[in-house]
Amino acid sequence: MGEPAPPATESGIHAPLDGLLRAFVHDGVVDYGCLQAHEAQLDTYLRVVARIDPSVLSRDRQIALWINAYNAFTLKLILSRYPAIASIKEIPRRWEREEWVVGGRRYSLDAIEHEILRREFHEPRIHFAIVCASKSCPDLAAEAYLAARLDEQLDRAARGLLADSRKGARVAREKGLLGDVHNKLYLSAIFKWFREDFARGGSLVDFVKGYLPADARTFVDVAGGDLALDFLDYDWTLNGE
User: Fold this and answer.
1) Confidence band (pLDDT; 50, 70, 90) for 102?
2) Mean predicted confidence (pLDDT) in 139-151
């Protein structure tokens, strides 16, 4: 007998991943040791994803599927080397390997991110949802993404990153060498790497303002044209305990 048919409902499709995320992800930190002990459940989810044809799904269900698949594949990639690694960057060709199956086709993580999520959907908030297993990444959500709640989930992910002054956004008034004061907005390097996605139809600062905490948003408004933009260092250390 062959594999059983995938669940009929979206929540059923993503239930194995949702259960793992709720159990082993807390405030963006992944308990890879416990996750590894339940890797069979992750494998169950990967087998389901391998049989789902994205082309028959609605736009939001496709986005949710690709985000969940990307995150699940990344978790599987880390578990393949855990606990011997301290960073995803220790894994050769981590983003170029075509070993991840969706709808019967093989993809690399790069292909999912750049050729599908970015190119086909033009949704900049996906950068806050797909997570590369590193401390400076946006927090990995402790739940699967679902079409019915996608807009709310993506907004929450954006606000969560930009509320984190360590890795998302920070404002400061800094003195220069001549004693002059500069208003600075520091952002995650994600905004530098994918600036074109965030600035489509406007400016990067305009996009960011919509998700900044109130005090930081006021700072940016008051600074106006005197605001200087810079980017935070990126920590590629594993986002685990």
Assistant:
1) very high
2) 98
The helix-helix angle for 59-79 and 150-162 (nearest 10°) equals: 50
Cβ count within 10 A of residue 24: 22
C-alpha angle 153-110-26 in degrees, rounded to nearest 5: 40
Residue of 211, 215, 210 whose CA lies nearest to 171: 215
Q: Answer yes or no: is pLDDT of 141 > 90.
A: yes
State pLDDT tens for residues 148-193: 999 999 999 999 999 999 999 999 988 766 656 789 999 999 999 9
**Rounded distance between C-alpha atoms, residue 183 and residue 171, angstroms:** 7
- Do 60 and 150 meet the contact criterion of CB atoms below 8 Å apart? yes
Name the burial class of residue 167, with classes exposed (0-12), middle (13-18) and buried (19+) by CB atoms within 10 angstroms of its CB: buried
This prediction's pTM: 0.95
All structural domains of the chain with their residue ranges: 10-162, 169-231
104: left (phi over 0), alpha (psi -120 to 50) or beta: left
Residue 2 makes CB contacts below 8 A (sequence gap 6+) with none
